[in-house]
Design brief:
Distance between the termini: 56 Å
Helix content: 40-55%
Largest sheet: 5 strands, parallel
CATH architecture of the largest domain: 3-Layer(aba) Sandwich
Oligomer: single chain
Radius of gyration: 22 Å
Length: about 210
């Protein structure tokens, strides 16, 4: 059974959701009209999923979503909106919410998104991939690597192990691991191979500029 708290102050939308979702056997639905009451309700009951009207959730810089996540880190939060969902893609990209669904979506689509979200999966529109591509391209437009970061990238390209990099920088292997973690975060990657591929693709080092 999936417990859901719907946070919605529009009576027609709320009534429609109640009628439609309460017919689904594996969904247990409760509703809340006032977003300020959500945290109080969470003290008595933790819900698996919070389906929140986007206009309420985004008040004061996602205050409600942030507080839900702080109080219940594993909570699944899905925004429900009448706006163009592309306006909220940044929240998915930054992993502030687990999903976004349009109020024009069919009940089948909504139920599918709810079930997949609980399973740790996500359903996204095809054009979200275009958003990601644009986002990744833009992040490198004004990226300025420090000399140390450039040296570190060059060593990764040459396949130097952490121990050799530590000797060259005259630091501990643990410090090198920290350097790599910071570099990976800067480039938006998680492995050495990905870092090298990004350096080549985005021509981050002088030796790639004329390729």
């Amino acid at each position: 059974m999936i417990s859901i708290l719907v946070v919605e102050d529009h009576p027609i939308v709320l009534k429609g959701l109640k009628i439609l979702l309460r017919e689904i056997e594996d969904l247990q639905l409760e509703t809340e009209k006032n977003p300020h009451n959500v945290l109080c309700r969470m003290k008595d009951k933790r819900f698996d999923l919070y389906l929140i009207d986007a206009s309420m959730a985004t008040t004061n810089d996602l205050e409600l979503v942030t507080k839900i996540k702080v109080n219940q880190p594993q909570a699944i939060v899905i925004l429900y909106t009448s706006d163009n969902i592309r306006s909220y893609y940044s929240l998915l990209f930054e992993r502030k919410v687990n999903g976004i669904v349009s109020k024009t979506a069919s009940i089948e689509q909504l139920i599918s998104i709810i079930r997949l979200s609980v399973q740790g999966k996500i359903v996204i529109p095809v054009d979200f991939l275009d958003y990601i591509k644009d986002k990744m391209n833009n992040r490198f437009t004004n990226l300025k690597l420090t000399e140390k970061e450039k040296q570190l990238l060059q060593m990764l390209i040459k396949g130097y192990p952490n121990k050799k990099i530590a000797a060259i920088f005259n630091v501990s292997v643990r410090t090198v691991e920290r350097y790599l973690s910071q570099l990976f975060s800067l480039l938006g990657v998680s492995t050495r191979l990905e870092a090298v591929e990004v350096a080549k693709e985005k021509q981050l080092l002088d030796e790639f500029k004329d390729i």
